[in-house]
């Protein structure tokens, strides 16, 4: 039986992004050896969207109150390159990772599937 999922974030500065997940987001972790930190994520859900060709994959973190979460993370030095934007399915923004990548962050309008 499948009992979890493993998400990989590719980074131009993996050490900085690991430190970000550890320190700014305060995610618990284990050391898989040689500084390779593996982080516990909050409950998750998966959605399948139509795409042309082979498509791509994205990671969005979820929260209950986007404004409150942004304020908390900004106090920890987290950068948000995009202002919050209203979408049909939620309110979203982007977190800038130290390695230059971005993560989506959103407050869903729908009931989270992980509460089922």
From TrEMBL:
Domain of life: Bacteria
Domain VOC residues, every copy: 3-108
Classification via InterPro entries: Glyas_Bleomycin-R_OHBP_Dase, VOC_core
Coiled-coil segments on the chain, per record: none
PROSITE patterns the record matches: VOC
Protein name: VOC domain-containing protein
